[in-house]
Design brief:
The protein is mainly alpha-helical. The chain has one domain (16-80). It has 3 helices and 2 strands, in the order ββααα. The protein has helices at 30-36, 44-57, 71-80, and strands spanning 16-18, 25-27. A two-stranded antiparallel sheet has the order 1-2. A hairpin with a 6-residue loop joins strand 1 (16-18) and strand 2 (25-27). The radius of gyration is 13 Å and the shape is globular.
């Protein structure tokens, strides 16, 4: 299982939280986390709490998955839809 987020070449700049045991991840806006005073979630429970906080604030879309490629829905949304 993935235990850390994807990082830039410097290995210090994290830009995704892990979501599965493969290389898929959720990309997040750091300025949104800063503005809403959110922490990068480390557990599934914290992830869903973060989405609820983003939704309650109303400034951002908490989870947006939309591309022209149909694989994206299969690889991302279906991994979490049963819970959220």
């Amino acid at each position: 299982m993935a235990k850390s987020g994807s990082s830039a070449e410097d290995a210090k700049t994290i830009f995704c939280v892990p979501m599965a045991s493969v290389i898929h991840a959720f990309i997040y806006k750091l300025d949104a986390f800063d503005r809403l005073k959110l922490q990068v979630p480390a557990t599934g429970k914290a992830f869903f709490a973060m989405l609820d906080a983003i939704k309650k604030d109303g400034t951002y879309t908490g989870l947006d998955m939309g591309t022209k490629d149909p694989w994206e829905a299969t690889m991302g949304y279906q991994n979490i839809r049963a819970n959220y």
